Amino acid sequence: MTRIDFDALVALLRRIFVAHGASAAVAEILARNCAGAERDGAASHGLFRIDGYVSTLQSGWVDPRAVPVVEDVGAAFVRVDAANGFTQPALAAATPRALAKVREAGCCVVAIRRSHHFAALWPDVEPFAEQGLVALALVNSMAVVVPHGGSRPVYGTNPMGFAAPRADGGILVFDQASSAMAHGDVQIARREGHALPPGTGVDADGRPTTDPAAVLDGGALLAFGGHKGSGIAMMIEIMAAALTGGQFSFEVDWSAHPGAQTPCTGQCLILIDPARGGTLAGFTARVERLIAQMHAAGQDRLPGDRRFATRAQTLREGIPISAERLARLEELALG
Fold it and tell me: Which of the residues 20, 40, 45, 230 is marked catalytic?
């Protein structure tokens, strides 16, 4: 095991994306996103994803040079056509207009369609909380989750990301799937030979299983918390697909593109200026009061704490990476 500097990893990943057809602008955004996940210890959304990105680019399923079209449709509403490109460049294109609207109106909805999201959600919301805003992101994916009481997958893992500013200048953030486990974590479990926790998924016949291969090969995931998580997954389908004009998870069909792994769906981002409810200082003081009660109740670690600690460590010491994986990345960078 060796270590690599964050900026050096970004540069290497940028070369990979460019070598496989991405524009320089798209490559920069995707490289920073993926390297950031690896830096923060989010293995299921870091370097683990690179082979999937490359396979998808080679399949012709996604346009890595797409130029998003930003549409101003209301006092607090921005639509974005990602043009069959990746979600993050579409969000970056919409951000200046969205920030102007939230400062003017106090809130803004950003509705992105025809977009491919293959990454963690916390990078989408963290920057807004760092600017004093509350941010909620909702994304649907491909159909791999059975609705409660159902017999076949309809929903995606349908993650949500949330971030809010804190009084000390930090942020409170979480990113979680609506499924019992993230799809990438199931893939890692199969690769590493680990069983899944009971209640995670079913096999192709609808029988409960702890075998990740059975879940991935014709089976499906369950929503977390039974009917409650299933309801949240349904809501995210409506917000990320029906509202944005993106595809529902069950509408994703990449059968004509062998190797494709990035679902082309939608994302809904809601931004709120908490100062409109009084003052930013008053809002963050209330957040701190809640956190104090959480700690007093025995919760030692807040959502995001482990990632922030890992981030600080890897920025000091470098990001751990095996020699085999580093060699693989260098190989991919050759095209």
Answer: 45
